[in-house]
Amino acid sequence: MQTLKNSVFQLNIRYPLEKLSDPEKLLFVDIETTGLSPDKAVVYLIGCGYIKNGSCRTIQFFADDVNDEEAVLYSFYNFSLKFDTLITYNGNKFDIPFLESRMNRYDMPMNFDNFKGVDIYKRIRPYRALFALPDLKQKTVEGFLDIERDDKKSGSELIKVYAEYSEKPDEFSLNLLLGHNFDDIVGMMKLICMLSYSDAFNEKISAEKAIKNNYKDYNGRIKSELIIEFSFPTPIPKPVSSGFSDCYLMLGGNRGKLRISMYTGYLKYFYPNYMDYYYLPDEDRAVHKSVGAYVDKDHRVQAKASNCYTRKKGVFLPEWAEIVTPVFYENYRDNTMYFELSETIKNDPEVFTRYAAHLMEIIMKET
Q1: Whose C-alpha in 66, 137, 202, 203 is 20 to 30 A from the C-alpha of 39?
Q2: Domain count of the chain?
Q3: Using one digit for the tens of pLDDT, what is the confidence trace for 22-44?
Q4: One domain, residues 189 and 223
């Protein structure tokens, strides 16, 4: 078994690591295996990246052949005890379960229960529509951030290289194996800034401006939209955008913008407890029975849930949960709800903050 300590180097890590833990308690981990199943494959290389005295460093634990696996696992685990947080890329699904399975094989009394875990892949997966990428493989996401790497082979391609190295060690093959793992580690340390996208959706945003704008649609008709400008604490590394229905989201730096089409006209407010109401066909509205009792019986009928409403003319904004009330609809059982853009709401930045957060959640859910 070999333990290889690489030279100290500097990286421009564009993320406030202290949000995760003490930066010197963070351990970036990537493993290389001879297959995907821990029942049939072994771990032949574990690479780690960490920060010490303000500088980045790496260490790699390498099995010269499969018989060194137990020593590799012990060495890595003992080293990891200096840290409190393990950072991986898809590690919750692959690296950590694989390591624990192989440790159990050797009856090692160790696990990772006392570590905090940060899986970059898991954190960014809900926001994949923002990146417009074919997949979220580590190399693909590195390309999104224009991160370059030296290695030319994938982990699966290196399985054969390792098998040949085990039979006949040579420096060229060793450098291929170590180089790929090294690039994975360094790439992961650079990719930590991708957590900013998750933060933008999960930390409190602050609406700063809401303005009305008129525009022409594809048919040349004049329509109105509301533009909400907001800020969030952690800047994202690259501008992104996405949309759903008549809502469009743009993010860049630590600022965001939402464009939402406004509805002008009549909408319906549906009363609860329709059994307490009459529907007036001539007026196309419902009234409470305490009032409807004075209406001629020929001009009233028992209200149903679908016609127990009053109509209101105004300017409205869509929502997909009762974020702002009262709630209006175009038709009964519609999925899209609306709230009136009243003068009170126009002057309440907290409403727009809640509304903007709601729209961001819906856009990610529906795209």
Answers
A1: 137
A2: 2
A3: 999 999 999 999 998 989 999 99
A4: no
81 and 108 housed in the same domain: yes
Over residues 229-250, the mean pLDDT reads 95
Identify the CA nearest to 310 among candidates 343, 261, 274: 274
DSSP alpha helices (H): ranges in the chain? 69-80, 95-105, 120-124, 138-144, 157-167, 171-191, 195-202, 289-292, 343-346, 349-366
Neighbouring CB atoms inside 10 A of 254's CB total 16
Q: Which two tokens stand for residue 175?
A: 């450098």
**Distance of alpha carbon 4 from alpha carbon 212, whole angstroms:** 60
What percent of the chain has pLDDT above 70?
100
Same domain, yes or no, for 177 and 229? Answer: no
CATH number at residue 146: 3.30.420.10
46 and 194 assigned to the same domain: yes
**Which DSSP state fits 202?**
H
Q: Give the range of the structural domain holding residue 115, as residue numbers without chain letter.
A: 2-199
Q: State pLDDT tens for residues 225-234.
A: 999 999 999 9
At 216, is the pLDDT very low, low, confident or very high (cuts 50, 70, 90)?
Answer: confident
pTM for this prediction = 0.89
306 CA to centre of own chain: 38
Point out the domain boundary residue: 179, 199, 219: 199
On whether both 317 and 169 belong to a single domain, the answer is no
pLDDT tens digits, residue range 175-188?
999 999 999 999 99
Evaluate the CA torsion angle 341, 346, 350, 352 in order and state its sign: positive
pLDDT-based confidence at residue 149 (cuts at 50, 70, 90)? confident
User: Does 13 fall in a domain?
Assistant: yes
Helix axes 69-80, 95-105, angle to 10 degrees: 120
Give one DSSP letter per residue of 14-56, joined into a string: -S-GGGTS-GGGEEEEEEEESSS-TTT--EEEEEEEEEETTEE
Contact 236, 270 (CB under 8 A): no
Domain assignment of residue 294, yes or no: no
